[in-house]
Every structure is written in structure tokens, then in C-alpha cells.
């Protein structure tokens, strides 16, 4: 060994020995296991609710009709409040859906609009009537392309934990447009059998049953007595009542609404993601209605179901809370 190598190695050995003592002083028998979320500043946003999600619908208009402004406020809300995912209640791409999973409309109306880092979370969409005008299954295939777009089928379900020993929330995404078409009655029958089975066989841990579809079965928008509304009303309320569905989320009418018709289920319409349609005040089953651009934020724990309607400038214009 050359002399200079011997001197260098000896010096490093001495240095290492001199550090052992101080380093041992810092050592501790406890071992921590921290995920990225544990050390993120977002961890400080935690509140009494285990589950948080946003809901927006009827949005896909290339950023126009205040779509971009609503998207900006969604991003700001999800930056300053806890949020786990986003639900889209349909009419994701105007005017005629998309023709393939590579359709440029996906970028014009989705990827290049909902750009906030806080919105790079999972999105769980359902199909609307406009999505059916070309190839609705293209949106299912897009789930294989996009990291955040999660649409495994035309109808599907997802169970989300509300914390250890606190139960769960069951989210059931349904496909409502076929209900309006007589030639698709067999498909609708198959789907309703699945919906009945999914709700009936929900685990004992499920505290909240939440169904998401595009068409409302009550509304105070332009479709109060519309064929769409009346047809869906013949199908869904009976199932919801039988299985004690807590909330039904929809869009189709381009407004923000909270409705409580007769029966067990509360209905929330969050279809104000871009173009607006008017609402009618004074209808008995309406607890809230606003023809304002915006979205809804949901917070859920084992005993509470909190809902906020937020407009395009970030103002909470309505809040309610269901309890059990």
C-alpha cells in the first residue's frame, strides 16, 4: 500500500471512530414509519371527517361557460381543504361525447382544464346523455390511458373506509341514460338487478349508501315535468327506499340543488360545471337551489354527512349536514 493511501485510510478510520460516540447519542430504539402524507403540510388539514370528495357535472365545454373558473376554484378548495377524490356526475364531454380514448376533446375539456396539483387525484365519472352520442365506452377505455380517470365500467361501485372500526361508505355509480330508451330495457333490467343486489348485500360496516347517476328523479330546474325526470322517477325511488339509500347525486340540470322529496333519500344536483340553466324557487321539496356556476364538497364520517355548495368565486353558498 502506498504511504499516502495508508495515511488516508488511517485518517478515515479515526474520523469514523470519533463519530461513533456522538451518533450513538442520537440513536434511539424507536423506529418511525412515515408515509409522504404524514410529513406533508396537507396533513395539518385533517378534520373530524375521514372521507372528503368533490362532485361536479355537465362540465366538458373546452373551458368555456365558466368551466375554467369552476375548475380553478375546485383546485383552490382541494388545496386548502382535505380531499380524496372527485366524482363527475356525467355529461363529461360536450356536445357529443368522445369518439376514442385518444380524442383531443379529452385534453381540451379535461386534462388542460383541471390542472391544479390538488386535482391530480382519482376521478370517478358516470355517463351522461351527451356522452352517449358517440362512443360511451371510449371513456371506459380512457381509464387505461389516464392515471386519474377511473371508470371501470358503465356502472360500478366503490366502498371507502371511514376509519378503523368506524365503518365505511358505499358509493354506487349507475348508468341512467339507457332508462330513457325502450330498446335498452333489457340492459336496464340487468343493471337494476345489479343495483338491487349491490345495495342489498352491502356489508354490515356500511354506514352511508350513496348512489351517483346523471339524471335526477326530482328537480326544480327546467326538467321538473320532463320525460327524463318522470321516467327515471318510475325506476329509482322504489329501490332507494327499499335499501335506505342516504343520498343520490346527479347532474343533468345545470344548477346546484338539494332536494328532499317524500321518502328516505336526499337528492343533490351538482350540474353547474359550465353552462347554466334556470331554477324555480318555492317548490316544497326543495331545500336549496341556485343557478350559479360551481361544485359540491362532501365530508363524511360514521355519523355525519356534510355537504357544501361552492360557487365559481369560492364562496360557500349553502351547507347542510345529515346525521345518524
From TrEMBL:
Binding site for Fe cation 1: 58, 91, 94, 254
Location of the Calcineurin-like phosphoesterase domain: 52-255
Membrane-crossing residue ranges in chain numbering: none
Signal peptide bounds: 1-27
Domain of life: Bacteria
Cofactor details (free text): Binds 2 iron ions per subunit.
Descriptive protein name: acid phosphatase
